């Protein structure tokens, strides 16, 4: 996905060692996520109406949340159908058996309103986009299930209400990421709400939920030091202990009974405390922590020369992506760090005890 250009890009990986560009398809908005089902690509497209502050490009007011699912014929490179999602999509997943798609509708908060605190009203006054205000009830996020039965024109949607579940801002859930296991259960992270929800896609019911909780961290670098003419800073893992809300971004099933989260963090609460625990966690489906990476992923990144000292005071390497893969007789977890520019590869043959195999620098 290329949100800035509003296109999907294709890459030919017939030779994985020599990927080649293979064309673009205009998508009619900002694509946020894409998944493949047989001969179709399913892209979540953010079409929300926005107003930008003329004096600060970082301030954007969303005056109306909207989005659609664009169905792209891969061979023909054309959009063959769009499905109204009723809100702003952030993540798309397709079930292993191809029967369902699940779309996390975030309807994200506006950080320029009330210091970004949740819940936020749904009626946005953007007459002064540099100081927007909100009123009315929240515009909560939700999960949209797409039943992929029959021809593309016959595909239909169902909506799963996620309000009243999280401990943090229960009236204003902000789903961030979704994954689906072989039993057609979907796991959804509510990042800013620091919560995880599991949904049965067959009947659209929430079957369990739990707080993502917090991680106890010690011997970390919390100070950004601009030393020397290049301002590379000093990496010194000597501070702590602290406790941080996990606030997971991506989530992936590890088999059918475990789920791993990348604990990026994205919310500063009314006390000024930021979430993000600098690592990843493996939960069982009941919400019990089976493995906590703590500072180990950050230490590994630093040892390989990929630590971003300029983020020490914030959320460190910000693990944002996680994916599970089974190859031959091996089972692996891939953890992507947004700020450290690495992907950690872990052996999860025993999902309760991941073992770091290698770091892949991403440049």
Helix content: under 10%
Q: Beta-strand percentage? A: over 45%
Question: How many strands appear in the DSSP assignment?
Answer: 28
What Rg, in angstroms, do the CA atoms define? Answer: 20 Å
* Helix-strand pattern: EEEEEEEEEEEEEEEEEEEEEEEEHEEEE
Derived from helix and strand composition plus strand pairing, the structural class reads mainly beta
Shape call: globular
If you average the pLDDT, what whole number results?
95
Question: What kind of sheet is the major sheet?
Answer: 4 strands, antiparallel
Strand order of the largest sheet: 3-4-7-8
Put simply, the count of helices is 1
Task: Please report the distance between the alpha carbons of the first and last residues.
Answer: 19 Å
Which stretches of 5+ consecutive residues score pLDDT under 50? Answer: none
Write a structural description:
The structure is a single chain. A hairpin with a 5-residue loop joins strand 9 and strand 10. The strands form 9 sheets. This protein has a 4-stranded antiparallel beta sheet, with no helix packed on it. It has a 4-stranded antiparallel beta sheet with strand order 9-10-13-14, with no helix packed on it. It is built from 1 helix and 28 strands. Helix content is 2%, strand content 46%. It is mainly β and 363 residues long.
């Amino acid at each position: 996905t290329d949100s800035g250009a509003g296109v999907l890009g294709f890459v030919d990986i017939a030779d994985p060692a020599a990927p080649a560009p293979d064309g673009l398809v205009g998508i009619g908005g900002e694509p946020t996520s894409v998944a493949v089902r047989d001969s179709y690509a399913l892209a979540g497209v953010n079409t929300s109406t926005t107003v930008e502050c003329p004096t600060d490009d970082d301030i954007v007011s969303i005056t109306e949340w909207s989005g659609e699912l664009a169905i792209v014929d891969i061979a023909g490179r054309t959009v063959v159908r769009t499905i109204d999602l009723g809100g702003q999509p952030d993540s798309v997943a397709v079930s292993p058996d191809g029967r369902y798609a699940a779309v996390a509708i975030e309807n994200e908060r506006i950080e320029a309103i009330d210091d970004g605190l949740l819940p936020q009203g749904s009626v946005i006054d953007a007459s002064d986009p540099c100081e927007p205000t909100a009123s009315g009830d929240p515009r909560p996020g939700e999960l949209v299930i797409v039943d992929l039965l029959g021809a593309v024109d016959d595909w239909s949607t169902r909506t799963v209400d996620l309000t009243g579940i999280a401990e943090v801002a229960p009236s204003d859930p902000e789903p961030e990421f979704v994954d689906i296991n072989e039993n057609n259960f979907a796991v959804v992270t509510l990042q800013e709400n620091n919560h995880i929800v599991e949904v049965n896609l067959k009947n659209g019911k929430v079957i369990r939920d739990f707080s993502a909780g917090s991680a106890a961290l010690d011997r970390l670098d919390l100070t950004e030091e601009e030393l020397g003419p290049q301002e590379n800073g000093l990496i010194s893992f000597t501070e702590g202990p602290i406790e941080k809300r996990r606030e997971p971004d991506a989530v992936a099933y590890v088999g059918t009974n475990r789920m791993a989260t990348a604990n990026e963090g994205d919310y500063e609460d009314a006390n000024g405390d930021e979430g993000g625990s600098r690592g990843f966690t493996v939960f069982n489906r009941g919400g019990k922590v089976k493995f906590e990476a703590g500072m180990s992923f950050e230490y590994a990144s630093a040892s390989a020369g990929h630590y971003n000292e300029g983020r020490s005071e914030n959320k460190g390497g910000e693990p944002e992506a996680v994916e599970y893969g089974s190859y031959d007789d091996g089972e692996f977890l891939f953890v992507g760090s947004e700020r450290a520019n690495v992907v950690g590869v872990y052996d999860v043959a025993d999902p309760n005890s991941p073992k770091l195999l290698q770091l892949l620098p991403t440049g």
